[in-house]
Amino acid sequence: MNDCKLIPAPAPLTAKDYRSDLKPVWCAGCGDYAVIAAITRALAELQLPREDVAFVSGIGCSSRIPAYSAVYGFHGVHGRALPLATGLKVARPDLTVLVAGGDGDGFSIGGNHFLHACRRNADVTYIVMDNSVYGMTKGQASPTTAADWTGSVLTPDGPGVPAFRPLEIALAAGASFIARAFSGDPTTLAAQIVAGIRHEGFSLIHVLCPCVTYRPEQQKEFKARVHAEWQPTDDRREAFGRLLDDDGYATGILYRNPRPAYRAPQVAATTLDAIAAGFEVAAA
Ligand SMILES: Cc1ncc(C[n+]2csc(CCOP(=O)(O)OP(=O)(O)O)c2C)c(N)n1
Ligand code: SF4
Hints:
single chain, alpha/beta, Rossmann fold, 8-stranded mixed β-sheet, 9 helices, 33% helix, 16% strand, binds thiamine diphosphate, binds iron/sulfur cluster
C-alpha cells in the first residue's frame, strides 16, 4: 500500500506576515504607519519570500521601518542608507533591496549619496517619507521645508532658501524610475512600490507623509492639495516638462525608463591570487 501523503501547498503570505511583532513608537496619526502598511501589502502582492528581501535605512522616525518588518533589516547610519544598500545589492544581486528614510536623511546629510545612487542605477527601491521636517530631532527645518515656514525656533523667520526638489534632482542625476504618492492613499502607494520593485534599476518613490507632531497642518494640506496627475512616460524631456509645472502635490509614476541597472564589475578569478603572489614577491 502506498502510504505517502500529499503535502499541502503553503498558504500565501499576507501583509501581516511581513510585519515584525515590534510595536511602532511613532506618534499616533504619523503618516509612517500607512507607509509600512503599503510596503507589506506590496510584498504580499509579490509573494516575495521573506528571506529574499533586505530592508536598509538611515536614522530618523521613518528610518525605523526595517525594525517593524519581518524581512532582513539594517538600521544604518544617518544619511548612509543608499551606499549601504547599493553595496548589498552588488554583493547579493539575488536579494530584493528596499531602502527607507526621511527627507532629512536622504536629501540633507545623504544628499551626495542620493545623487550617485540615481546615477549608478543599482536595482534598489528607495522610499522617502517626506514630511518637510526633522521629526526625530524635534522639528527643525529640512531641505524640503518651504522658505517661509516659521514653525521652528531655530529658523523663526523661515529657512529663507528655496526647497530642494527631489524629483527634478533625481531625473537630472539619472534615476530610471520616479514616482510620488501620498501616505493617505496607501493603495496607490502599494501599487507604486510593486512597480518600483519590479523595475530593474534605481526606483525613487517620494511619499508625502505628514508629521502630525511638528507639522500638524500637513494632514489637511496634503488631503486638500494632492492630485493624481502622472502616467508613466519614458521620455525624459516630457518628464522634465511635467516637473517644471509641478506644484509639489502631483502624484503618480512620473518616469520609467529601462536603462541597464548597475552590476558588480566582473573581476577575473585569478586577481586575488595575483595580488597574493605580488605580496610574496615584495616580502622575499
Ligand atoms: C551623523 C548624524 N547627524 C545628526 C544626527 C541627528 N539626527 C537623527 S535623525 C535626524 C533627522 C531626521 O529627519 P528625517 O530624516 O527627515 O526623518 P524623520 O525623523 O522626519 O522621519 C537627525 C538630524 C544623527 N543621528 N547622526
Ligand atoms: S515626530 Fe513626526 S515623523 Fe516622528 S513619529 Fe511623530 S509624527 Fe511621525
